[in-house]
């Protein structure tokens, strides 16, 4: 039963990390929405990451995760690390999607969800003594729950896209 609660707490922390940028965009609108890649194009002529990966989003993921982590029984440092790694995973997914020709904010099931969940879980494996079945379960739960949650957020006007 302890693994179930740990998995649920990790899933909540990952959800906050990944929705922090959306909350910040809703609250701050266009303020501090500078793209992380500075609008740079890669050698293939496509954006390095795309305009939707912003410093505001990175900062909000780190800050909100650090603030929520103690409520969930983790240290603020673990929360900040989770937020940062989740955004690194998201940026790696965006980089890969641009190379595959998927436009900014374009959909790619699996690639849109897994890197932002798996990267933090892999790094936290040792410090939190996470088992491989738990890591797999949290990643699969995130994959399966993120898509309907994104659709709901889109219907509520919280997200620009339903994915």
From TrEMBL:
Highest taxon above the source species: Bacteria
Keywords assigned by UniProt, alphabetized: Membrane, Transmembrane, Transmembrane helix
Transmembrane domains' residue ranges: 58-89
Any Pfam family matching the protein: CarS-like
Protein's name in the database: CDP-archaeol synthase
Species, as recorded: Ramlibacter ginsenosidimutans
